Amino acid sequence: MKHQQIDRLWTLGLILAAGLLFTINLGALPLRDWDEGIVAQVARDIWRAPDGSLTWLYPTIGGEPYLNKPPLMYWLIAFAYQLGGVNEWTTRLPGAVLSALSVPLLYGIGKELFLRRTPALLAALIYLTLLPVVRHGRLAMLDGALSCFFLIMLFCLLRARRDLRWGLGVGIGLGLVCLTKGIVGILLGTIALVFILWDTPRLLTSAYLWTGIVLGGIPVAAWYWAQWLHYGEKFLTTNLISQSLSRIWTPIENNGGAPWYYLLEVVKYSLPWLIFLPQGFRRAWEHRNLGWAKLLLVWTIGYLVVISLMSTKLPWYVLPLYPALALVAGNLLSEAWNLADLTGFFRPVRRPYPIAWVILLGLLAIVAWSGCLYFNFFAPTPKPDLALILITVAMAMTTAAILVKWRDSQFIPVLLWGMYISLMFLMASRYWIWELNEAYSVKPVAALVQQGTPTGATVITSYPNYRPSLNFYSDRQVIPANEVYRDHRPPLHTAAAIAQYWQQTPQPYLLVDAETLNQLALDSVHKMGEIDGWILVTHQPTTR
Predict the structure, then answer these.
(1) What is the pLDDT, as a whole number, of residue 172?
(2) Contacts of 214 (CB under 8 A, 6+ apart)
(3) What is the pLDDT of residue 165?
(4) If pLDDT is split at 50, 70 and 90, which confidence band does 446 have?
């Protein structure tokens, strides 16, 4: 079989495996706060806008101008709404599809970097079995799409070293990045530029490259110019300053952290592949005169340093780093892989693997077995489905540790298969969006609000935090009471704010918990409904 045919089969296999993992059970759980609820509201406003409206160009959220991010992903989700209606599945589908496509893209990048199939394939499979990549890629967020477009840019850049015509795709990929997350494109474009300067500076004289940058930049520049003409200085101060550049020096919405925040994120969520990264980076440094090592060093060091120095820290900011980590680990494990261990023929003398691999895999197995026993027998509420996920992880880690001890490279497919199956079980369960357990169930309360209030009503709640998902499902603006009078001096606590709003508003709608309602002792209260401890009230109707 020709090499191209083999590559096509592997690419097809990666697409199918990624497509299944990224879409299984995709619409079964409610949307998450914050990002999913906000993204869904903006996309729905675009979808429901009347014909001839310019909402697609000037997005809104709840009818108010939305100046946070460029509109590409909102356009894609609105298109999905047009095809399949407004629901969780169509909200998450565009991001999930783009995230799934990033897996075969990484395979192509690996082929261009290493000129061999094995490290490229291992890198793609490692990337597919990283928990944050799969979980955040399935959510209705911008970061899975961002990683996909960045990989398109890098793939075209690497191909352009052999065929300058691929330089056209570099600019188009960069344009897609900028239409997804704005000035993040400057950081990712700078990473590509530094790599070119170090590895292939002749590309900077390519007319194809600069033509592609112009073609990709035209829609970006047009959108920003349209916003400036429409909103003026308000757009500049909101989009470019408060929602973009200010994240560098100010923790937005108190989302701060130490400079090593993202290192801890990688340590927590890149297991078991984290085990192989130290030696993988050592190998990259030793071969830093080669193109693959130059790209991976610039990518990982440059991106990690910049996001670590930013004041705003959010877990998903690190997602564009994971493809590079997968390439580092895949390249190292390709050296450890021995096909003879699988076939049994012409088996050479096996070299021992580092004892640290055995120890760390063994520790992971112990933790997984302990978690399995806890959730099966000792938890206050047994969770057999969660125990099943941990059994899969435990069996994979145990078997891999034994194979590493035996110097058998089959530990690599065991880890890959075990992680894939465990992630499949996790995504098919109700646990993959664990943040939903941090607050009350949103859909029943949203149904109460929607049924009890007129269209366009504003609802004040005693819950202390915004819940964009509640706004999406109820199709109403539900605002925490402590935000209504946020500029009041001295600040009003929740009960005082609700009491003042109740007195000053002719037709108030309150969503309050029973304890707060009893504490307030409001007059002329009309209860319109109650569910899960939340009560919707307004003024008692007057009789004539």
Answers:
(1) 96
(2) 171
(3) 96
(4) very high
Higher-pLDDT residue of 378 and 368 is 368
Model confidence band, residue 344 (pLDDT cutoffs 50, 70, 90):
low
pLDDT tens-digit profile of 276-320? Answer: 999 999 999 999 999 999 999 999 999 999 999 998 899 999 999
Q: Which two tokens stand for residue 533?
A: 């401890």
Checking DSSP bridges between strand 64-65 and strand 60-61, what pairing results, if any?
A: antiparallel
Q: Is 323 exposed, middle or buried (0-12, 13-18, 19+ CB in 10 A)?
A: buried
From 501, 454, 503, 457, select the one nearest 478 (Cα to Cα).
457
Confidence bin at 349 (pLDDT 50/70/90): low
Q: What is the helix (H) or strand (E) element at residue 459, kind and residue range?
A: strand 458-461
Distance, CA of 416 to CA of 421 (rounded, Å): 9
In angstroms, the CA 260 to CA 363 distance is 24
Q: What pLDDT is recorded for position 342?
A: 72
CB 18 within 8 A of CB 100: yes
The structure tokens listed for 15 are 């697409």
- What percent of the residues of the chain are helix, what percent strand, and what percent coil, each to the nearest 5? 70, 5, 25
Token representation of residue 95: 């991001």
Please, what's the b/e burial string for 121-153 (b: 16 or more CB within 10 A of its CB; e: otherwise)? Answer: bbbbbbbbbbbbbbbbbbbbbbbbbbbbbbbbb
| CA atoms within 13 A of residue 305's CA, in its CB half-sphere | 7
Alpha helices in 314-378 (DSSP H): 322-336, 339-343, 355-373
pLDDT of residue 298: 97
For residues 383 and 387, give the distance between their C-alpha atoms in angstroms, rounded to a whole number.
6
State the Cα angle at 178 between 177 and 181, rounded to 5°.
Answer: 85
Nearest CA to 138 among 181, 104, 106, 93? 93
Neighbours of 165 (CB within 10 A): 14
H-run or E-run covering 401: helix 384-405
From residue 135, how far is each of 8, 364, 365, 435, 490 by CA, in Å? 27, 21, 22, 12, 42
- Is the pTM of the predicted complex or chain greater than 0.90? yes
d(CA 256, CA 371): 31
| Phi, psi dihedrals of residue 459, rounded to the nearest 5° | -115, 135
Is 396 within 8 Å of 415 (Cβ atoms)? yes
Residues 41, 7 contacting (CB under 8 angstroms) = no
pLDDT in tens, 375-391: 988 888 889 999 999 99
In whole angstroms, give the CA distance from residue 91 to residue 274.
Answer: 32
Give the type of residue at 97.
V
pLDDT in tens, 216-241: 999 999 999 999 999 998 888 888 88
